[in-house]
């Protein structure tokens, strides 16, 4: 069991799926505040419940006195994450990306105290550095550290190739740019931890390797499990579609009703992940049944 307060509570709540070096990360968190980030690509003008476990992870990191950094992908949105997709994303216009960025920021502000103060969570945009990066600089300074053989071994890439659906050169660069994000956040803000869903493991490991090679820094990766309900359904999906976090996309009552309709078997687990209630209280509520749990 980890000794640092954040990792101990994150484990108790069910946030942790994989970690690149749990012992070293635990030691770093015991010695002082650690900067950790999660990236959110603005593929729509709102995030949805599928992103909420990542947001709550950042919220927990902040509550334990560490520096929570939310990175919005204003730069990478111009390419689109190909991870585990059956086909390439349609390219968005600059206007659409700008609109989506405003919507994503609004969603994040509902859960995180974003600001510029030392005790605030930090909001960053990778367009700040990716838009200024020349192609030749990318090839010389960053590309030299990447092995194509290794990139082809990633599950997200291999699954596309095995289905003979192809992967464009544009998409293939996404992992490189995401890795470069980690390097920039480490250089600019001292961030040493990247977090994300388990489907991001390959990209996270690539970022760690790049930061170590270019900055000589010790950095870490931590992933959360991909959630399904007890009946096997994908978390955040309903017959009506995605459960959006923005009230402009989904009425507040419908959002409340989604959580009200959670299966009884999922109540304890979801209370731990999606609320700030003490773990012991979540466990107590999970033991209730029938009218009591309602």
Note down, in words, how this protein is organized.
This protein has a six-stranded mixed sheet with strand order 1-6-5-2-3-4, with helices on both faces. By secondary structure, it is an alpha/beta fold. α10 packs across α11. The chain has 15 helices and eight strands.
Layout: helices, strands, pairs:
Layout: H1 5-13, E1 18-19, H2 22-31, E2 35-40, H3 52-63, E3 67-72, H4 94-109, E4 122-125, H5 127-130, H6 135-142, H7 148-153, H8 155-162, H9 169-172, H10 174-189, E5 191-197, H11 201-215, E6 220-224, E7 237-238, E8 241-242, H12 252-260, H13 267-274, H14 279-286, H15 290-293
Helix pairs in contact: 10-11, 13-14
Largest sheet: 6 strands, mixed
Gap between N and C termini, in Å?
A: 33 Å
Low-confidence stretches: none
- The overall strand count is 8
Q: Give the helix proportion (percent range).
A: 40-55%
What series of H and E elements makes up the topology?
HEHEHEHEHHHHHHEHEEEHHHH
Global mean pLDDT:
89
Proportion in β-strands = 5-15%
> What structural class results from the helix and strand content?
alpha/beta
List keywords for this structure.
single chain, 294 residues, alpha/beta, six-stranded mixed β-sheet, two-stranded antiparallel ribbon, 15 helices, 47% helix, 12% strand, globular
């Amino acid at each position: 069991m980890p000794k640092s307060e954040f990792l101990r509570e994150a484990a108790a709540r069910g946030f942790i799926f994989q970690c690149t070096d749990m012992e070293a990360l635990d030691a770093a968190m015991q010695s002082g505040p650690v900067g950790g980030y999660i990236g959110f690509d603005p593929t729509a003008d709102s995030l949805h419940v599928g992103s909420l476990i990542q947001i709550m992870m950042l919220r927990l990191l902040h509550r334990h006195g560490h520096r929570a950094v939310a990175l919005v992908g204003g730069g990478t949105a111009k390419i689109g994450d190909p991870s585990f997709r059956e086909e390439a994303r349609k390219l968005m216009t600059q206007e659409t990306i700008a609109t989506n960025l405003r919507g994503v920021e609004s969603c994040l502000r509902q859960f995180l105290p974003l600001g510029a103060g030392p005790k605030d969570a930090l909001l960053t945009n990778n367009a700040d550095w990716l838009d200024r990066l020349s192609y030749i600089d990318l090839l010389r300074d960053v590309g030299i550290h990447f092995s194509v053989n290794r990139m082809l071994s990633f599950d997200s890439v291999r699954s596309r190739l095995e289905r003979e659906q192809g992967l464009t050169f544009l998409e293939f660069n996404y992992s490189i740019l995401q890795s470069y994000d980690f390097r920039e956040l480490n250089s600019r803000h001292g961030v040493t931890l990247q977090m994300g869903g388990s489907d991001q493991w390959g990209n996270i490991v690539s970022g760690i390797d790049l930061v170590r090679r270019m900055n000589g820094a010790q950095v870490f990766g931590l992933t959360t499990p991909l959630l399904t309900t007890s009946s096997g359904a994908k978390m955040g999906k309903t017959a009506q579609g995605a459960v959006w976090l923005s009230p402009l996309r989904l009425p507040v009552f419908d959002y409340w009703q989604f959580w009200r309709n959670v299966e009884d078997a999922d109540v304890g687990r979801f209370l731990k992940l999606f609320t700030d209630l003490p773990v012991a209280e979540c466990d107590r509520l999970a033991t209730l049944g029938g009218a009591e749990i309602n």
